[in-house]
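Hi R.,

As promised on Friday, here is the backbone we talked about, encoded as structure tokens. Could you run it through your design pipeline when you get a chance and send me back a sequence?
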């Protein structure tokens, strides 16, 4: 896997303020430029921090906003290089504030990337994933092209480190497409190489695809270093395709680049030299070179290739087994790190919750949900280790079964990460709001007026409702799908049920939206149904409408005429409506029209399940074009 180090120089392209002479490549005040060079030279020495402080003070005096951001970036690089995470976090926060205040948002996303890369390099991939999610939300809110590209590319790096190569390749392809469309000045060659590496490692039938991406990387490279990396990558693919003459030609071109510009890619060039030794029949030098090629994984991989070339299948098998053992140990290390991070987060949230005056009901629900999730995760980890141990025993008898066991483990890891990503985000957002506002209210030093206290209380209540709704959605889904829930069918006044749903959601609607109910049936008209579940469907429809409607109206209507012989409840809004490409999948589980809107993506799916249990149906009225119109249709009791 290749991790892209975003150099600070890339961030310096763009508009800048006119502050004094700017006869330097960074386009800052010429008097500040020597300071920046000295601080960069001492970036791993405390002396660099002192120079950065002086430069920052001078930049403020001269009103050079870009120079201010450059000065704030120096401590970020210093603490990143000396592995001081606590101070790195503080330096990142300062650079993010300075970049936003001075309207140089590229430095904001540079700061985000440095913290995420530090976490990734130290095995904290789950925290890195959470930080990347936060950066993604901010980048799309800012509509900042470099920020959007950075978060997409970073997600690819994270999943590549976690061993999920398929998902990593999807992110790399998205990052490449976005770069070519929106950032034509950016060098996309490393993205091409990441994709070439993915196709080369998938199976032999995709080697032509890997070669195609390698060729594109050579053509797109804008630096000598990246072009050399692309040529070396092409050599590897040609070797695997057994195209010897083309390999030798490409190899000579690589060596010519090294003579002309230097050896930028040491480990990469070691690998293609090994391939050259193998083609020349010099197996002793190939084995000797393999021991210094890089990580243990790379050593085992190169030894397997060499032994296969020698025809020593026993040693090749042993190297293959070591490769899989190494991958298993890496996967176990990632999962152990995930579990430790989850435990730390759970402990922190529990301490914060105990210190605040939150309602007992919400506290118990939240804690129970987190503990249940931790229990399930632990059970999954134990089961996974048990299955892997059995797989390794079988591997000694038949090497072919290892591939099946490995694919199964990768699919399980993908499913686990999808669940963690969805639930951790949906739980954390309202929980952080509850804790944050409660802490402000309980701090004696902070004096708030009654209006502010009322606003904080409202925010706490809204977040509590969101958290409760998430838990209730999960419990409802489990109850309905288990088959143990029995519908309680009784006679109820139809219009009264509708008014109850309206009263429940009325306080949540935006001020510019009118919410009202009309009916074609008499007030004493009754239907036989499950009161709780019918009202639940109507509330879900109304809540969904309030979430997406900022102006206009939301209309709940009851009709006997729309579908004769049936009663139809419709919820119509004047929001943005449902795109045609999503109209057929909105009732699926975890499907959300807008990924940045709060919600679990279960509400409409639960409505569909309830409708089926009541012998009815829910659907979207595709003929309605002024917003969205959802229908709940039930047969009448004959």
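Update: got your reply. Pasting your designed sequence below so it's all in one thread:
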């Amino acid at each position: 896997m290749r991790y892209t180090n975003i150099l600070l120089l890339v961030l310096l392209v763009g508009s800048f303020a006119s502050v004094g002479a700017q006869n330097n490549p960074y386009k800052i005040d010429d008097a500040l430029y020597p300071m920046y060079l000295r601080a960069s030279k001492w970036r791993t020495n405390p002396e660099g921090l002192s120079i950065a402080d002086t430069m920052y003070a001078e930049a403020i005096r001269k009103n050079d906003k870009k120079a201010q951001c450059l000065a704030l970036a120096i401590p970020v690089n210093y603490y990143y290089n000396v592995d001081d995470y606590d101070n790195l976090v503080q330096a990142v926060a300062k650079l993010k504030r300075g970049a936003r205040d001075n309207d140089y948002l590229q430095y904001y996303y540079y700061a985000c990337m440095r913290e995420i890369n530090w976490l990734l390099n130290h095995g904290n991939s789950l925290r890195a994933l959470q930080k990347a999610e936060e950066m993604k939300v901010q980048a799309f809110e800012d509509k900042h092209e470099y920020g959007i590209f950075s978060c997409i590319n970073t997600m690819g790096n994270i999943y590549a480190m976690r061993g999920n190569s398929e998902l990593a390749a999807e992110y790399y392809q998205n990052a490449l497409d976005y770069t070519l469309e929106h950032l034509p000045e950016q060098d996309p060659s490393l993205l091409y190489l990441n994709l070439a590496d993915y196709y080369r490692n998938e199976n032999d039938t995709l080697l032509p695809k890997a070669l195609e991406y390698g060729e594109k990387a050579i053509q797109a490279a804008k630096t000598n270093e990246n072009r050399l990396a692309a040529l070396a990558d092409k050599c590897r693919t040609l070797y695997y395709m057994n195209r010897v003459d083309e390999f030798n030609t490409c190899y000579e071109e690589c060596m010519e680049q090294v003579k002309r510009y230097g050896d930028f890619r040491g480990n990469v060039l070691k690998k293609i030299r090994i391939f050259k030794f193998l083609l020349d029949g010099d197996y002793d030098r190939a084995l000797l070179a393999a021991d210094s090629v890089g990580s243990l994984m790379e050593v085992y991989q190169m030894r397997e290739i060499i032994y296969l070339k020698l025809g020593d299948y026993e040693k090749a098998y042993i190297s293959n087994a070591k490769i899989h053992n190494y991958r298993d140990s890496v996967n176990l290390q990632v999962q152990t790190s995930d579990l430790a991070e989850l435990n730390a987060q759970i402990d922190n949230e529990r301490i914060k919750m105990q210190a605040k005056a939150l309602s007992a009901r919400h506290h118990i629900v939240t804690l129970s949900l987190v503990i249940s999730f931790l229990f399930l995760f632990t059970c999954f980890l134990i089961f996974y280790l048990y299955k892997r141990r059995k797989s390794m025993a079988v591997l000694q008898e038949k090497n072919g079964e290892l591939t099946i066991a490995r694919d199964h483990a990768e699919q399980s890891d993908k499913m686990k990460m999808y669940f963690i990503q969805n639930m951790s985000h949906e739980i954390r957002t309202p929980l952080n709001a509850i804790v944050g506002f409660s802490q402000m209210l309980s701090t004696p030093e902070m004096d708030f007026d009654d209006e502010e206290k009322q606003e904080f209380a409202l925010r706490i209540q809204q977040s509590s409702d969101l958290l409760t709704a998430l838990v209730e959605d999960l419990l409802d889904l489990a109850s309905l799908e288990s088959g143990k829930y029995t519908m309680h069918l009784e006679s109820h006044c139809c219009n009264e049920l509708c008014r109850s749903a309206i009263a429940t959601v009325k306080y949540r609607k935006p001020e510019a939206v009118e919410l009202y109910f009309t009916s074609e049936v008499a007030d004493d008209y009754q239907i036989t149904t499950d009161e709780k579940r019918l009202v639940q469907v109507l509330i879900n429809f109304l809540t969904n409408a309030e979430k997406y409607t900022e102006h206009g109206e939301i209309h709940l209507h009851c009709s006997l005429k729309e579908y004769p012989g049936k009663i139809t409840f419709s919820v119509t809004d004047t929001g943005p409506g449902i795109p045609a490409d999503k109209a057929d999948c909105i009732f699926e589980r975890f499907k959300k029209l807008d990924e940045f809107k709060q919600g679990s993506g279960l509400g409409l799916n639960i409505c569909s399940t309830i409708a089926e249990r009541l012998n009815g149906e829910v659907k979207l009225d595709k003929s309605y074009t002024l917003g969205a119109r959802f229908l709940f249709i039930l047969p009448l009791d004959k």
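One thing I noticed while checking it: Residues 1-19, 342-355 have pLDDT under 50 and may be disordered.

Thanks again,
M.
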